[in-house]
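Hey, can you fold this one?
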Amino acid sequence: QLQLVESGGGSVQPGGSLRLSCVASGASGFTLRRHAVGWFRQAPGKEREGVACINAVDDRTFQIDSVEGRFTVSRDNANYTVYLQMNNLTPEDTAIYYCAARGASYRCSPSPSWYDSWGQGTQVTVSS
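Sure. Predicted structure:
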């Protein structure tokens, strides 16, 4: 398992942007490149929802329809970091955002149960 720490959340107005970071640490010699990583969000009273993810190795990315064209996931393996760039934010994007990772897995998944390491979350609030 990895230790994951998210940052970059905050309060923005509708139409604004934020970039979330997820920094990973683990046992000596671990390679982030070999981990699939997902970004999730959970709004009050709602279930945790997968919004975007990135495969291990080939870095192919996936997003749910509601964030397509607005959210982009990427990784910087040298710095053990995965990013979620969020543009044109709306109040419906307000939630706690989490990153999650799964080792020894090529593909990512929008299902929370797929992952074995989780960060503590970072709050994103979009309001005028």
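The first strand starts at residue 3 and ends at 7. Let me know if you want another pass with a different chain boundary.
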